[in-house]
């Protein structure tokens, strides 16, 4: 028996990194290198760790990830501008430095989607459930195209769309709510599927039908404590009964 009854669900709203593709791992590596290179220039700073990623960065828009982590270390930098070069010691500069590292790895190594995630997407499409990507990343379309799954998603709400529409990033519910609205659905007929703490917080704040936590390292209890009512390690666990 499936963990989730899909009969009354009109839309499935998927985060991208760590849910559809294992790009969360690529992001983690890029954040680690960028922050540790920067921290090495400051006396007395301990290295950036995986715990820092989950506590301060995971799921947030890039600028907010930089800001939140640096604040946790008592480091203040000017915000700068979105077009700051990666060499600039500003919030935008560090964010752009991280993005350059991420893009380099994506171009060199490519990416494949999680098989269980695509199984679920295909099964839902076969039932008439509309599928969207809701991601803080501005690289979402490039990642989906590289993974050859972009055509499976009717709607992509990424960091570019959020900026254009003036939508607050996760943990605010705005991007997920906007996606449901584009489908003409109330939030309580859409399911949010997330691997990040900020993402399940977003789903809880928006009062969606279900908030699914995909445990790729954040931890089952942490996901439940922050808003997930179902936690899985593979989205194939949610395949509808045939």
TrEMBL record:
Check the record and name the InterPro entries matching this protein: Beta-PGM-like (IPR051600), HAD-like_sf (IPR036412), HAD-SF_hydro_IA (IPR006439), HAD_sf (IPR023214), PGP-like_dom2 (IPR023198)
Question: Is DNA-binding given among the entry's keywords?
Answer: no
Q: Which Pfam families match?
A: Hydrolase (PF00702)
- Look up the record and name the cofactor or cofactors this protein needs: Mg(2+)
Gene3D superfamilies for this protein: HAD superfamily/HAD-like (3.40.50.1000), Putative phosphatase, domain 2 (1.10.150.240)
Keywords of this protein's UniProt record, alphabetized?
Carbohydrate metabolism, Hydrolase, Magnesium, Metal-binding
What PANTHER family does this protein map onto?
A: 6-PHOSPHOGLUCONATE PHOSPHATASE (PTHR46193), HEXITOL PHOSPHATASE B (PTHR46193:SF18)
Which protein, by its recorded name, is this? Answer: HAD superfamily hydrolase (TIGR01509 family)
Task: Give the organism the record lists.
Answer: Naumannella halotolerans
């Amino acid at each position: 028996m499936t963990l989730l009854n899909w009969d009354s669900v009109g839309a499935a709203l998927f985060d991208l990194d760590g849910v559809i593709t294992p790009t969360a791992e690529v992001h983690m590596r890029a954040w680690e290198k960028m922050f540790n290179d920067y921290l090495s220039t400051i006396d007395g700073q301990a290295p950036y760790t995986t715990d820092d990623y989950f506590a301060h960065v995971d799921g947030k828009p890039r600028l907010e990830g930089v800001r939140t982590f640096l604040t946790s270390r008592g480091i203040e930098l000017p915000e700068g501008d979105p077009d700051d070069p990666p060499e600039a010691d500003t919030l935008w500069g560090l964010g752009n430095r991280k993005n350059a590292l991420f893009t380099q790895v994506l171009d060199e190594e490519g990416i494949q989607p999680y098989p269980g995630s695509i199984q679920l997407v295909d099964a839902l499409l076969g039932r008439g459930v509309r599928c969207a990507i809701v991601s803080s990343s501005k690289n979402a379309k490039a990642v989906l195209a590289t993974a050859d799954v972009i055509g499976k998603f009717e709607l992509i709400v990424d960091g570019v769309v959020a900026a254009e529409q003036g939508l607050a990033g996760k943990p605010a519910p705005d991007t997920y709510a906007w996606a449901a609205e584009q489908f003409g659905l109330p939030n309580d007929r859409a399911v949010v599927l997330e691997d990040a703490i900020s993402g399940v917080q977003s789903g809880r704040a928006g009062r969606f039908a279900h908030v699914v936590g995909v445990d790729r390292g954040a931890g089952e209890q942490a996901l439940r404590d922050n808003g997930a009512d179902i936690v899985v390690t593979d989205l194939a666990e949610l395949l509808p009964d045939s």
